[in-house]
Each structure stands twice: as C-alpha cells, then as structure tokens.
Amino acid sequence: MSGTSPAGPRERLLVAGQQLFYARGASVGVDALLKDANVARRSLYEHFGGKDGLIEAVLRRAAEEDLAWYESALAAEAEPRDRLLGLFDRLDELVSNPDFRGCRYFATDLALAEPDHPAHAETASFRQRLRSLLVRELKATGHDRPEGAAEQLHLLIEGTLVMGATQDGRHPGHAARDLAAAILD
Predict the structure, then answer these.
(1) Structural domain boundaries enclosing 106
(2) DNA-binding residues per UniProt (predicted)?
(3) CA-CA 20 to 30 A from 176: which of 36, 62, 84, 165?
C-alpha cells in the first residue's frame, strides 16, 4: 500500500487557518475554522492553546512561504539591480491575480487591536526579515545607503500590496518599479 496518510488535526487547522485568515481576515470565527479543518474544538486547544495561538502559527508558517516567494522572485534576474527591479514586476503579477486579497500581515495588524497580541510579533518579525533581505540585495548593488534604501523599497512593496488589494485594474507594481529605480540610482 503506497498511499499517504491524511493530514492530522494540527496540519488541517494550519491549512484551514491560512486559507480562511487570508480570505476572510483574522476575525474569522472558531466554528468556521473547526468546520473547514474538520476537527473537534479540543484539537484547536491541544495544538495551539486557542485561536490566538493558531493565528500566530499560521503567520509564522506563511512568513516562511512568503519569504521563499521573495527569494524566488529575486532569483529570476542575475544582476543585483535587475533583481530588485524585477521584484516589482513579480509583485505586480501577484496583485493582478483575482485571488489576491492584500497583505496578510497588514490585515492582521489592523484586525487585532490589542497591542500585545502575539500575532504582532510575527508580523514585525516578517517585516524585519524582508527588510534584511532587501538590505542584502542593496549591498550587492553597492548602494551607499542600504538600510535607508531598504526602508524605502519596503514602503513601495507595502504600498503595492495595499493598492493591489483594490483590484481596480491599475498596476501599482509598475509605478513602484519606477520609484524603486530612482532609489537605486
């Protein structure tokens, strides 16, 4: 027998959480999560201590996937400057997808008003790791202010993701690419 075993309750909760939190936001109800994951309420508390723990774990998992996406987008070009500019082309493709719902980290921070919610540490960690990736790329270009330029490029990335969520037919990645070129020059 060579079949794979079905995912356990923990994995099903992570998958359901990642899909539902992205599609409907962090305020999605526990009952919807349990139904989508096809698990008992007890599984949520055993594996994550509750919904807040699941949100935190989902963000941690999504961050790994999203950072891998950024690395892959950068790898599409050979030259450091082209890598950074090409990133905005990939972002424009991403936000043009009809399933795109905006930046999960921004949406989570807005949805969870409590400043001490553990999800905020995960969103901050993701942003710091993304900025570190940008600093690395800027150093490879020989940029004289890699930290400051990374902050500016990060702002353009966030703006592209926010504007892309409107799905209004514009191409925010193209405009952000033009601004990124000015930062790189």
Answers:
(1) 60-184
(2) 29-48
(3) 62
Q: What are the start-end ranges of the H helices in 76-117?
A: 80-96, 104-111
Look at residues 146, 152, 142, 148 and name the one whose alpha carbon lies nearest to residue 176: 152
Token pair 């992205």: residue: 22
- Counting residues of the chain whose pLDDT is more than 90, the rounded percentage is 85
Q: What is the per-residue pLDDT for 85?
A: 97
Q: What is the CATH number of the domain that holds 96?
A: 1.10.357.10
Q: How far is CA 178 from CA 84, 115, 154, in A?
A: 11, 35, 14
Kindly state whether residue 20 falls inside one of the protein's structural domains.
no
Q: Could you tell me if residue 18 is inside a domain? A: no
Task: Say how many domains are in the chain.
Answer: 1
- What percent of the residues of the chain are helix, what percent strand, and what percent coil, each to the nearest 5? 75, 0, 25
Q: Rounded to 5 degrees, what are φ and ψ at 183?
A: -65, -40
Tokens 């989508």 -> residue: 36
Instruction: State in Å, rounded, how far the first CA of the chain is from the last one.
Output: 60
Q: Under a CB-based contact definition with an 8 Å cutoff, are residues 26 and 108 in contact? A: yes
